[in-house]
Amino acid sequence: MSSLIRRDPLDDLFRGFFVRPVEYGPQSEAPSVKIDVKEQENGYLVHAEIPGVKKDDIHVAIDGAIVSISAERREEKDVKDGERVLRTERYFGKVSRSFQLAQEIDEAQVTAKYTDGVLELSLPKKAATQARRITIQ
């Protein structure tokens, strides 16, 4: 015996209508970090694209061979018509990226430059320490 299922066509029309976010115009996009790493003879050259972030809001940390880049973006936008505020939008976001290199970095020699949304890191390799032979007496 087959069972009958009664369907209301309006159910399909409104299904999911109230769970979708309502969008009011173009939204700010969360910042992301896209990275290019090039190995050179004496070090690494890293280009990190971090558009829309101020230089003071970018932080770089180096721990041995691990490099961490984090950035925070704050954006506020008010649209006013005289004294009446018509719309206020704000975006606060933080993004971070960590990666490990093949050799430890000499933190004292690291240089960083931020131009046109691109962070350039010059990461010199730490001089390899030679294994020391110990004389047994």
Explain how this protein is built.
The structure is a single chain. The protein is mainly β. It has a single domain (28-124), classed as Immunoglobulin-like. The protein is built from 1 helix and 7 strands, in the order αβββββββ. The protein has one helix at 9-14; strands at residues 34-39, 43-49, 58-63, 66-81, 84-100, 111-115, 118-124. A 4-stranded antiparallel β-sheet has the order 1-2-7-6, with no helix packed on it. A 3-stranded antiparallel β-sheet has the order 3-4-5, with no helix packed on it. It is flat, with a radius of gyration of 26 Å. The protein starts with 8 loop residues before the first helix and ends in a 13-residue tail after the last strand.
Estimated radius of gyration: 26 Å
CATH class (first level) name: Mainly Beta
CATH topology: Immunoglobulin-like
Strand order of the largest sheet: 1-2-7-6
Strand content: over 45%
CATH architecture: Sandwich
Secondary structure tally, helices: 1
Furnish the topology, listing elements before pairings:
Blueprint lengths: L8 H6 L19 E6 L3 E7 L8 E6 L2 E16 L2 E17 L10 E5 L2 E7 L13
Give a quick set of tags describing it.
137 residues, mainly beta, three-stranded antiparallel beta sheet, 7 strands, flat
Question: Gist?
Answer:
4% of the residues lie in helices and 47% in strands. The chain has 137 residues and is mainly beta.
